[in-house]
Amino acid sequence: MPEIKKIVLTGGPCAGKTTALVKITNYFSGFGYKVFNVPEVPTIYSTAGWNYLTPNRALYYQGERAILETQLALEDQFMRLAEVCTQPVLIVCDRGTMDISAYIKPEEWQEITSMCGTNSNELLERYDAVLHLVSAADGAEQFYTTATNATRYEQANEEGLRLARELDKKVIKAWTSHPHLRVINNHNDFESKLNRVLMEISKVVGLPQPLRDERIFRVEIIGEIPECSESEITQTYLVTEPGSEVRLRRRAFSGGKVVNVHRSRKRISDTEIIETERQVDNNLYEQMLQQADPYRTTIKKKRQSFIWKGRFFQIDTFRAPVDDLVIMEAKGIGEQDDIDLPPFVRVLEDVTSNSKYQNYNIALMRR
């Protein structure tokens, strides 16, 4: 059987998914991958006449159930196609099963998934990675349009932009406990946004990728962080060969869900790295802990993730091995890029180039 990776490409309205899908197909086909694109199922139903804004609740409910059943069936059929290919396969889903939960009440979602013989945890495990492209309505309003999607209900006015931003955050929340959720910012130019998509997928399939652009700040939180998702992280570094870094992370979300991820990172040149991630079950997680690096302390921290003006931020408040350190990361932003920092944090220091504040070295710190 060939190597098969299944990716979800999702996001709020007018995020650039259609263009990204073309870019993904062309780019990875050039590396010898057979690329399958699973079409966006809600659009199939909308163009056929179903409307999720219908006042008929029975029609709405049956439509959402039909979308989930069709999504599952389509993905399963493409997996069967992939299994008989002779080259590695990349299956790219234009939205995935969990997107549906952003449009429906929690109790209805639970009932629908139960009828389909599944649940949210099982649905999340169907995918190797989830890439969320932030809507142009959040941080790139000048590019927001409805012209590219005749079924879009969030119009290009102030109310439409507000609805698009809200929907964008709901979709991120639906996927937030996936171990390889990556939120793709609205960059200064759209090409940079697309290149970030290619970089993240390259990481999933194991192709070399350029070193990531990100800005890292030591900060103080001075206000309430709006609409953030929170999790508790326990991070242990394992013994490995020189020049490599292997990390074992357990991330606990509200509601009791726990996700364990094993990550390996190796620099192959001054400008390229190979980074791979895989989810591991609790038993394997406990076994791997036996390989912990004795020179590095386990890191414990609270993570708060949020979008501010089209940018994705993560704030880590460390509990161990130090308890007086708060680090904020702005993903997908180069050192020369302009950045509008959130008003609820006070930047104490830009530590982007300071290796002392890399997690790998923070594990060497002591209280």
Topology:
Elements: E1 4-11, H1 17-29, E2 34-38, H2 41-47, H3 57-83, E3 89-94, H4 106-115, H5 120-124, E4 129-133, H6 158-175, E5 181-184, H7 190-205, E6 209-210, E7 214-221, E8 229-238, E9 244-253, E10 258-267, E11 272-280, H8 282-288, E12 299-308, E13 311-320, E14 326-331, E15 345-350, H9 359-362
Parallel strand pairs: 1-3, 1-4, 2-3, 4-5
Antiparallel strand pairs: 6-11, 7-14, 7-15, 8-9, 8-12, 9-10, 10-11, 12-13, 13-14
Short account of what is shown:
It is built from 9 helices and 15 strands.
Notable traits:
ten-stranded antiparallel β-sheet; 9 helices; 15 strands; about 30% strand
Word description of this protein:
This protein is of the alpha+beta class and 367 residues long. The longest helix has 27 residues. The termini are far apart.
Low-confidence stretches: 142-154
Summed over residues and divided by their number, the pLDDT gives a mean of 86
Number of H- or I-type helical stretches: 9
N-C termini distance: 50 Å
